[in-house]
Sequence to fold (115 residues):
Amino acid sequence: QVQLVESGGGLVQPGGSLRLSCAASGSIFSINRMGWYRQAPGKQRELVAAIRSGGSTNYADSVKGRFTISRDNAKNTVYLQMNSLKPEDTAVYYCNAMATIGDYWGQGTQVTVSS
Fold:
């Protein structure tokens, strides 16, 4: 089992920044990829950014150049730094761990971009 706890969401004005954190515990040795997804009301959940065990990353086109995914292996934590936020970034953001033993999700954290 893998447990994921997210933090860092909130309300921010357009153009502002937020950093999301996702702390993993449990069978972390089995994790191959960590990612951030988001789901806006009435829309499907979409991949925002992911980082693999080897360090490679990928991003949705809509966030390239604005968001950065990173990790701190000593803290078993993955971060999503979000800059130049737009109203369309408003969504519930979920941390995901793809592991050899299964697929795991955090509880989600709300990000609202509004003036």
User: Anything to note?
Assistant: The CA atoms of residues 81 and 102 lie 26 Å apart. The chain has a mean pLDDT of 96. The first strand starts at residue 2 and ends at 7.
